[in-house]
Design brief:
Blueprint lengths: L1 H19 L12 E4 L5 E3 L4 E4 L4 H15 L4 E3 L10 E6 L10 E6 L2 E6 L2 H14 L9 E3 L2 E5 L5 E7 L7 H13 L4 E5 L1 E2 L2 E2 L8 H6 L1 E3 L17 E3 L4 H13 L3 E8 L4 H6 L31 H17 L4 E5 L6 H4 L2 H9 L5 H18 L3 E5 L12 E4 L3 H9 L4 E3 L2 H4 L3 E2 L10 E4 L2 H6 L5 H5 L6 E6 L9 H8 L2 H10 L7 H19 L12
Parallel strand pairs: 3-4, 3-5, 5-7, 10-11, 10-23, 11-16, 16-17, 17-18, 18-19, 19-20, 20-23, 21-22
Antiparallel strand pairs: 1-9, 2-8, 6-7, 6-9, 12-13, 14-15
Helix pairs in contact: 2-3, 4-6, 8-11
Bound molecules: ligand TNX.
Catalytic activity: Hydrolysis of terminal non-reducing N-acetyl-D-hexosamine residues in N-acetyl-beta-D-hexosaminides
Keywords: Glycosidase, Hydrolase, Signal
InterPro entries: Beta_hexosaminidase_sua/sub, GH, Glyco_hydro_20_cat, Hex-like_dom2, HEX_bac_N
């Protein structure tokens, strides 16, 4: 009788414990290898101690904050296992032998120990995100159980980015930090910060102060049309810059979370805001230009820098200042959609081309790109540019960000450039997620969740040509013409950004859209709600 009771009790307790733990089938993006070992779960309680190697001290504090929010209690952080005594431990260990590649992590949980081993900060941060997903999302009265697991995980692509355009609309520093938190949760490693465009310059600079006071503001005479947010056509002055102190703070914030920030200063086109502040950098310095307040390519109005000594001095000075501010190895120099007509119509631009042996406007564009690339190289930086930068001959260290499609990717690979895939279809998250005519205003047609999930960033032709190694990774772009507020950004990026995270992280053969949607609904949507983030709710109806 007793042994029967014991068996019954064992089953009962066992099944309760099984219900309490979440397990490896919850994780997004799906890991390379994740096994439930069936050993005793780890009980995380107020008594649990976070132990961190010197290298991961800041991540220990980051984890402490995350657990404080999620579980409701503050764990002690120490820097050696000895100080933990016989308490249950969460160990953050620098261990290149266990996790030899850049972003790999190994997470093992059983009994009184949960360890995350990594070689470097991004790896340990990824392990932390996985841990969050193994824990309940509610504040706990008692201990929270983590199932006994063994996870070994690393990304499919080395570059996994999200972009945000803060020119068309500017967002508060708190939202930029929130956005970085969203990126970290999804195991992205790069935030591409689109800081300048025709409609506003957003980076405080010391060397050319009119960028802060003139280029940063526009009159809201025509802002576009919002169906769900109040339209503002009232000539208010709109804009601002992120101060250098704010930028430094944001860079630090991102670094703790394993995120590199790559700033973009978009030249020689998309430069209308610069020209409004300094007309002498344009082909028509005699004109009073204004910061753009409509959208589009701007052929009608001058947004192209002129090749003159003042402009080149400006470019050198500004990019030096940017290089000093941002620690990233890469600086994005834009290069997209440069309208050639202004150079064609300008006698001085034509004279410059002739004097420098440039046979057409494409070569002039390349001259600009190379000029900046050379200055940045002196600062130890390399460039990324939109795919138009490869119209002329460039150094192969330049990384090409492809916004069109496979054709441009093949061209870039043949020219031996590393490539970041960000094709409008399906990686532009400013496009519609539904065909509902009442959906919030967007552009570029229909770009639903399953298209993002099922897109393979390695074009078939590159495989055939055996050039797939040139694909460095991919990125979601968030152009904000029609995103006036943070809530609209969240609505446009969720859940597509979650799908993208799996597209860029998970081995191709492990991807499964139906299973992704199961995890999304069961575990990630509650996470959006926990964050208080807006998201597109009708994705099932439209995929
Ligand atoms: C094109 S693609 C742009 C942006 C716009 C976007 C709208 C590219 C590099 N430039 O200036 O905001 O389309 O989707």
């Amino acid at each position: 009788i007793f042994s029967l009771a014991a068996v019954v009790l064992w089953f009962f307790v066992g099944s309760c414990m099984a219900q309490q733990t979440i397990g490896v089938n919850a994780i997004v993006p799906k890991p390379v290898s994740a096994i439930a070992t069936g050993k005793a779960p780890v009980a995380i309680s107020t008594q649990t101690v976070i132990v961190a190697d010197g290298a991961f001290q800041q991540q220990a504090v980051y984890l402490q904050e995350l657990l404080q929010k999620q579980l409701g209690y503050t764990l002690k952080v120490v820097n050696s296992p000895k100080q933990a005594g016989n308490a249950t431990q969460i160990l953050l260990q620098q261990d290149p032998a266990a996790a030899p590649t850049a972003e790999m992590y190994v997470l093992e949980a059983a009994g009184k120990k949960l360890s995350i081993k990594a070689k470097d900060v991004p790896g340990v941060v990824h392990g932390i995100q996985t841990l969050l997903q193994l824990l309940p999302l509610q504040k706990q009265k008692g201990a929270a159980q983590v199932a006994a697991v063994q996870i070994k995980d690393y990304p499919r692509f080395g570059y996994r980015g999200m972009h945000l355009d803060v020119s068309r609309h500017i967002f508060p520093v708190e939202f930029i930090k929130k956005y970085i938190d969203y990126l970290a949760f999804h195991k992205f490693n790069t935030f591409h910060w689109h800081l300048t465009d025709d409609q506003g310059w957003r980076l405080e600079v010391k060397s050319y102060p009119k960028l802060n006071t003139v280029a940063a503001y526009r009159n809201l005479t025509l802002i576009g049309h919002f169906k769900d947010t109040p339209a503002r056509y009232d000539s208010t002055r709109y804009g601002g810059v992120y101060t250098q102190a704010e930028v430094k703070d944001i860079i630090k914030y991102a670094a703790v979370r394993g995120i590199t920030i790559i700033p973009e200063i978009d030249i020689p086109g998309h430069s209308r805001a610069i020209i409004a502040a300094y007309p002498e950098f344009s082909t028509r310095p005699d004109t009073t230009w204004q910061v753009a307040n409509t959208w589009g390519m701007y052929n009608r109005q001058n947004n192209v820098l002129a090749p003159n000594p003042a402009t080149f001095k400006f470019l050198e000075t500004i990019f030096n200042e940017v290089a000093d501010l941002f620690p990233s190895e890469y600086i994005h120099i834009g290069g997209d959609e440069t309208s050639k007509m202004w150079w064609k119509a300008s006698p001085s631009a034509q004279a410059f081309m002739k004097a420098n042996g440039l046979k057409d406007e494409k070569e002039l564009q390349t001259y600009f790109i190379k000029f900046v690339a050379n200055k940045l190289e002196k600062k130890g930086k390399k460039i990324i540019g939109w795919h138009e930068i490869m119209e002329g001959k460039l150094d192969t260290t330049a990384v090409v960000m492809v916004w069109a499609g496979e054709k441009q990717a093949v061209e870039a690979a043949k020219k031996q450039h590393r490539i970041i895939m960000t094709p409008g279809k399906p990686f532009y998250f400013d496009a519609y997620q539904s065909k509902d005519p009442k959906d919030s205003l967007a552009i570029h047609g229909y770009n639903p969740l399953d298209a993002v999930y099922n897109y393979n960033p390695v074009p078939a032709e590159l495989k055939t040509l055996n050039l797939e190694k040139y694909i460095w990774g991919g990125q979601g772009n968030v152009w904000t013409e029609y995103m006036e507020y943070p809530s609209k950004v969240e609505y446009m990026v969720f859940p597509r950004m979650t799908a993208l995270s799996e597209t860029l992280w998970t081995p191709l053969e492990k991807k499964d859209y139906a299973d992704f949607k199961r995890r999304l609904k069961q575990y990630i949507i509650p996470r959006y709600q926990y964050w208080g983030a807006g998201y597109f709710k009708n994705f099932e109806q439209w995929t």
